[in-house]
Design a protein that fits this description.
Distance between the termini: 43 Å
Shape: globular
CATH topology of the largest domain: TIM Barrel
Number of domains: 2
CATH superfamily of the largest domain: Metal-dependent hydrolases
CATH architecture of the largest domain: Alpha-Beta Barrel
């Protein structure tokens, strides 16, 4: 506003604290970063025993930064697009011991365990023989540590130092962390532990391993002690509930006691995220749990637990998958006043090759036997478990943060402003609020509007005014190096007046002008452009971007609910199709050759 007073031109100045440069006034997270929080190097005993004898934590980090490395099968490999961050999450149980055993490390051989394992290795000539002893120990709840704290500290210092060497704030973030590998009677309870802190801080306390305890409550207590000791920050991220045989999202503790408020509070505090997709299958939902969801059966591992000790039963499934766990969380919130399952969603690879690859046309598997080769699809993972063709080329995590540093990325992870991808780097924005409208989706500054008048993915809406309905601003942009988009969906779960949890999937944006069938509520499938050869496709169908303003047509202000967004690509060749073409393999009807990649946003919750 301008005024002329006594011949002088006066210009009204902006409010105190405002700057001319809009970037200085931005309150939200403007930058999207891609990474993997779950890669194993040769410092993981199982990775080493199953063939990853060469690629160290340093090699894993260099590869993620974009360097070319030589895989264990002798092939050169490189990411077309480097990642922005990585966590080498080697198993805490005997971390780094196997390569040192083969190298005759004198400090290791001076221990009783080192001497015993080296003797077994010399006798059999096969490091794989030692893996049986490793598995026996990590599954025995009464097993005690056999390595001194000094020796374990020495290795932990090496692991953290590798992250420190490769960490370059603003360019590439190397997190310090490990995996806690609890496996109760073969049931997967694994957690990846991620530190916000530098190596000097993180190494003030040894990793908490399954040899210390297989109870998640003891892990959380150890993480709380670490934070009290160092004033640092740390979190745990569960993965593969789909092979936990119903334990991952149970309704009682391992001791068989119902959850109480303290348990729910502690779990929500230390486990704000869940790894919903990775090589050992997709854990969003299951066709048994979501029979009306036509996209529910995606990379489903429907076998049993990791130990193959108990066959899968349908009664286990509600406690294994993210969507059903989110629904259970609504029930528990009503009972306890706290939601233990109010988690965001991420993807990561769980690759044991040191190679964080999640693209179908550049997929390097889980172990050496699932690195590219003519027989890899037909080999069994690790030599004895599942056929490798079941492996999914998945996944990564997208993080909205202000900068590429440990602190900024960790804070974004903690507030759940993150989302899971099965591979493609689709840019996704989701905001929920009470005052959005249809015009906002066309706003050139959608994110600023979203932050100023709503909450981003991972946020919470409360206290609906009478007659008000939450609105969601959703914007999805295809991977610039990938496939077009088929559709955008909102997945809603809610707790009705009878205390029953329900779910519904809404198509909120469809490509190619398609409409839902009024009778069935389903949209026709997008055109499949995969070529006759099966190893390529065109972007002749689908959309480059899809956006939507959506309001819940069945909103009840008295009912708890969550909403997350699922974006699905057009059909593309699966990694098995690229293999069949490259290695000249015959068709096999048992092996899927097509996929529809996707991303899952972290939810936004409504709590009355």
């Amino acid at each position: 506003m301008k005024k002329i007073i006594a011949g002088l031109l006066l210009v009204a100045m902006p409010a105190l604290g405002q700057e001319y440069s809009p970037a200085l006034n931005t309150a939200g997270a403007d930058n999207l970063y891609w990474g993997d929080l779950h890669v194993h190097s040769n410092y993981s005993p199982d990775a080493f025993a199953f063939g990853n004898s060469k690629l160290s934590p340093d090699a894993a980090l260099r590869f993620a930064r974009g360097d070319q490395v030589t895989a264990n099968n002798g092939m050169p490999v490189q990411l077309r697009r480097p990642l922005d961050f990585l966590l080498v999450a080697d198993h805490a149980e005997f971390i780094g011991v196997f390569p040192k055993l083969v190298d005759n490390d004198p400090d290791l051989l001076a221990t009783e365990l080192g001497a015993e394992w080296r003797s077994l290795f010399d006798k059999t000539g096969n490091i794989g023989a030692v893996i049986g002893e490793w598995l026996k120990r990590i599954q025995d709840p009464n097993y005690e540590q056999e390595l001194s704290e000094d020796y374990r500290s020495q290795i932990w210092q090496e692991v953290a130092a590798a992250a420190e060497r490769n960490n370059q704030p603003g360019v590439f973030t190397a997190f310090v962390g490990y995996e806690w590998t609890a496996m109760v009677a073969g049931n997967n309870l694994h957690r990846v532990v991620v530190y916000r802190d530098d190596a000097a801080t993180a190494t003030r306390k040894l990793p908490f391993s399954a040899l210390d305890s297989q109870n998640p409550e003891d892990l959380w207590a150890a993480l709380a002690h670490y934070e009290e000791l160092t004033q640092g920050r740390v979190m745990a991220i569960p993965h593969n509930g789909n092979v936990s045989n119903g334990l991952m999202f149970a309704e009682e503790t391992l001791a068989g006691k119902p959850f109480d408020r303290d348990y729910a509070t502690t779990r929500a505090r230390f486990e704000p995220l869940y790894e919903v997709t990775q090589v050992k299958g997709d854990s969003e939902t299951h066709p048994f749990l979501s029979p009306d969801d036509e996209f529910a059966d995606f990379e489903t591992w429907d076998d049993d637990n990791i130990g193959r000790t108990v066959a899968k039963q349908n009664s286990m499934l509600p406690h294994e998958y993210a969507r059903s766990a989110l629904k259970l969380g609504l029930e528990m919130h009503s009972k306890l006043g706290v939601n233990p399952y109010q988690f965001g969603l991420i993807g990561s690879t769980d690759a044991h090759t040191s190679l964080a690859t999640a693209d179908d046309n550049n997929f390097w598997g889980k172990f050496l036997d699932s690195e590219p080769g003519p027989e890899r699809a037909h080999n069994k993972m690790g030599g004895s478990l599942w056929f490798n063709w079941k492996l999914a080329a998945s996944g990564y995590v997208g993080v909205w943060a202000q900068e590429n540093t440990r602190a900024a990325l960790f804070d974004a992870l903690e507030r759940k402003e993150v989302y899971a991808t099965t591979g493609p780097r689709i840019a996704l924005r989701v905001f929920g609020g009470w005052d959005f409208n249809e015009e906002d989706i066309h706003n050139a500054d959608l994110a600023q509007r979203g932050y100023s008048d709503g909450v981003p993915m991972g946020g919470e809406l409360t206290s609906a005014a009478k007659g008000n309905t939450p609105g969601f601003l959703i914007q999805a942009l295809k991977d610039p190096d990938g496939a077009n988009l088929d559709r955008v969906q909102v997945v809603k779960g809610w707790l009705d007046k009878r205390g029953k949890t329900l779910e519904k999937v809404y198509d909120v944006a469809l490509s190619d002008g398609r409409k839902q069938n009024r009778r069935t509520g389903k949209a026709p499938p997008v055109e499949n452009t995969i070529t006759a050869a099966g190893n390529s496709y065109t972007n002749a169908s689908g959309a480059v971007s899809l956006a939507s303003f959506w309001q819940d047509p069945e909103f009840d202000p008295d009912q708890r609910a969550f909403y997350y967004v699922r974006v699905i690509e057009i059909p593309t060749p699966r990694w098995t199709a690229y293999d069949a073409s490259y290695f000249g393999q015959p068709d096999n009807e048992e092996i899927p050759m097509q996929t529809q990649e996707r991303v899952y946003s972290s939810p936004i919750w409504y709590n009355p």
